[in-house]
Amino acid sequence: MPGLARYLAVRFLLIFPTVFALVTAVFFLMRLTGDPVTNALGDRLTPAQLQQRLHQAGYDRPLLVQYLDFLKGVATGDLGRTATDNRSVADLLGTYGTATLELAGYALAIALVVGLPLGRLAAYYRDRAPDVVLRLSAILAYATPVFFVGLVLKLVFSVWLGWFPVAGRASTEVQLELAHRSSVTGIYLVDALRSGDGGAVLDVLRHAVLPAVALGLLVAGIFLRLARTNLIGTLSADYVTAARSRGVTEARLRNRHATRPALVPVITVLGLQIAGLLGGAVLTETTFEWKGLGFELAHYLTARDYVAVQALVAVFAVVVAVANFLVDAVAALVDPRVRY
């Protein structure tokens, strides 16, 4: 246990320099484009009004002072207000963060449900036709841009077949119904389940299918190839060969002896894919008009509101760093070798 505690303590402490490096890079890269007030509102204000707004926002101060204030805001959770619509970034997170969390959860579930079983199937049929087809499908799923997949899914299943809605998180009636309830989490599926309204639950799920599939397939291809490669490796390990010589069936070897060690690298890579899900959420939410942080980030990028952009990117950085720590902790619990 001391080895595990020491390992987790080191991994936890690494969160802080990681987040520090990321938010520092974001801050100075944003400042290379000029001050955010001029970028966002420079063509709509007189020179006097522009100088007043710069002074009010503190952008006429030395860059080092602005940087230290930004770090203080990140450390205390005060990420400021947007330059274009003067909204609190904290309000943005509370309003739209749950939508991105919900979409990422759907996509991750699809990636695991699709990628891991198909990876095991590809390993079982190694170098045969099913394996070749699955490997090519995995490459195609990962290489195809998520917005293109989303557009194809909308065209086929929404426009041509009419099976699923074109955009949005839920119909207008369901959104109004959920918003007027006393206990609202912001996660539509949870709120619909708590309401006991089967129609609302079905409506939320129908809206979630296409964006979740578009984003989930991006990660499913990685899990498929990783599970296949690791399972092939463990099936040829010495302890599996010894178990096979003792008469253990192939089904038991795959299900009991080889699967758990093969999943450890998948768990480790899972943390890295959190960043991929958040990055893909920007394009997915924009394609399906899913009102989450990715949708808002794209909006503020278009509006050149770099206060909002650097704040939202800083939040993404913290989420990715914490998620990687949690994944490292799970991997250490599953496989003691990770701790040393």
From TrEMBL:
Membrane-crossing residue ranges in chain numbering: 12-30, 103-125, 132-157, 208-227, 262-283, 307-334
Entry annotated with the keyword Metal-binding: no
Family: Belongs to the binding-protein-dependent transport system permease family.
Membrane topology, from the record: Multi-pass membrane protein
Subcellular location: Cell membrane
Xref: InterPro entries: BPD_transp_1_N, MetI-like, MetI-like_sf
Protein's UniProt keywords contain Repeat: no
Domain ABC transmembrane type-1: 97-327
Name of the protein in its database record: ABC transporter permease
A UniProt-annotated Pfam family: BPD_transp_1
Top-level taxon: Bacteria
Keywords carried by this UniProt record: Cell membrane, Membrane, Transmembrane, Transmembrane helix, Transport
